[in-house]
Amino acid sequence: MTEPKKNDWYVAYGVYSVVGIQLAVSVVAGLMFGNYLDKRLGTLPWLTVVGLIIGSVGGFYNLIRIVNWHRDRKRP
After folding, report:
1. d(CA 54, CA 49)
2. Of 2, 56, 3, whose CA–CA distance to 25 is shortest?
3. Rounded to 5 degrees, what angle do the CA atoms 23, 4, 65 make?
4. Residue 4: which residues within 8 A CB-CB, separation 6 or more?
5. What gap in Å lies between CA 64 and CA 25, rounded to an integer?
6. pLDDT by residue (tens digit) across 32-66?
7. I need a surface site. Which of 24, 30, 37, 76 has the fewest CB within 10 A?
């Protein structure tokens, strides 16, 4: 069994805080871009909803990808 490194919790804290920030930013960016397109094209609220969904899917995809990377990195 390997001895845990002194700063492992720093790495975990950094990874999971970045994941949360990236999830929030992708959802908000999708929402804002969809709203911008809605105002330009006059299709309110459809592109806002589509942008929100695309941002959410992209954010959750990135969340799963990073969490799996961190989990695999910790395995011996």
Report:
1. 9
2. 56
3. 25
4. none
5. 16
6. 999 999 999 999 999 999 999 999 999 999 999 98
7. 76
What are 37's two structure tokens? 């397109």
Amino acid (1-letter code) at residue 4: P
Q: CA–CA distance from 75 to each of 8, 26, 60, 70, 71 (Å)? A: 13, 29, 23, 9, 7
Residue written as tokens 């930013």?
A: 25
Per-position DSSP letters for 9-64, written without gaps between them: HHHHHHHHHHHHHHHHHHHHHHHHHHHHHHHHHT-TTHHHHHHHHHHHHHHHHHHH
For the segment 2-31, what is each residue's pLDDT rounded down to a tens digit? 555 667 788 778 888 988 999 999 999 999
Phi, psi (5° rounding) for residue 70? Answer: -70, -40
